[in-house]
Design a protein that fits this description.
It is a single chain. The protein is of the alpha+beta class. Helix content is about 50%, strand content about 10%. The chain is elongated.
């Protein structure tokens, strides 16, 4: 075993021990506070306080913190509620200032899953396409079901960051020839935001890069059906990925074709009696060949 391997295992063991012995706050998917490996039950106000500080890592002034947590409550009463909520947590060394005499934050050694997820989002562009980082942290929203306005803002911010990271990673994987991983990454983005065009584009481009025309068309049709069912007939920027557009940047790079080649093997163009819009359908014939 090399020194690097020993160092890596030592670091992993240290992290695992810290996670069992220390404090951990989870806000992705659901809320939990654990201390020493055991879940800590909290009342509603205490849970909201700990969650707020986990989502906002910078120290918070008590007055502003109380106003966010108890909007509409008089300032003095809100500060009293904040004091009571902090006292009711009952976990030693969880806060930087449990007496509320100054700005309040979670202690530096408290492990927060959102902080890990944001770190992964920042690091992902620098991770080689040949590596396979664990992206499970990017699969869940911040506190789904919680309706406070301060949560909604941070939830949407994190959602946009992780979607962009997944889409960009999918494109890099496709460019590196790791097509199944690229498809899976884009599918994760589509699952988070089905109506997001850039996520659908990443998925279609991953299928096209792999040469799976049928899957690309199916993904396109799924999106068009979603648009029709939600906003009515609508066009999207994804049309340019298919013939007769001169686009097809990924496939054309691998299989150069003339501009006049508006059909591909396995696809045929269908128009309605009134000359309606084109729709690509699997199972068509190749131009210039007879059908059996």
């Amino acid at each position: 075993m090399s020194d690097d391997q020993r160092g890596s295992r030592t670091t992993q063991a240290h992290v695992a021990t810290h996670q069992v012995a220390g404090h951990q706050v989870r806000v992705l998917g659901s809320f939990t506070l654990t201390s020493g490996g055991s879940s800590v039950p909290l009342g509603v106000d205490s849970r909201r306080l700990v969650a707020y500080l986990a989502v906002h890592p910078r120290p918070q002034e008590p007055g502003a913190l109380a106003a966010d947590l108890w909007p509409g409550v008089p300032a003095a009463a809100a500060l009293r509620l904040l004091d009571e909520a902090a006292d009711a947590v009952g976990v030693p060394a969880l806060f930087t200032d449990a007496d509320l005499t100054g700005p309040l934050a979670l202690a530096a050694d408290v492990h927060v899953d959102l902080a890990d997820a944001l770190g992964l989002v920042r690091a992902l562009p620098e991770i080689p396409a040949t590596d396979s980082p664990d992206i499970a942290l990017l699969s869940a929203d911040i506190l789904p079901g919680w309706t406070a306005s301060w949560i909604a803002v941070e939830r949407e911010r994190f959602r946009q960051l992780r979607l962009h990271a997944l889409e960009e990673r999918s494109l890099r994987l496709a460019a590196a020839g790791r097509y199944p991983e690229a498809v899976a990454m884009a599918e994760g983005a589509v699952q988070v935001a089905p109506s997001r065009e850039s996520a659908r584009r990443a998925l279609i481009e991953a299928h096209l890069a792999e040469g799976d025309i049928a899957a690309a068309v199916a993904a396109y049709d799924d999106y068009q059906e979603l648009l029709r069912s939600s906003v009515g007939p609508a066009s999207s920027g994804l049309d340019a990925l298919f013939p007769p557009s001169p686009a097809w940047p990924l496939l054309r790079a691998r299989h150069p074709m003339p501009r006049s080649a508006v059909q591909l093997p396995g696809l045929r163009s269908v128009r309605g009696a009134a000359g309606g819009s084109r729709r690509l359908v699997a199972g068509g014939s190749v131009p210039g060949t007879a059908r059996s």
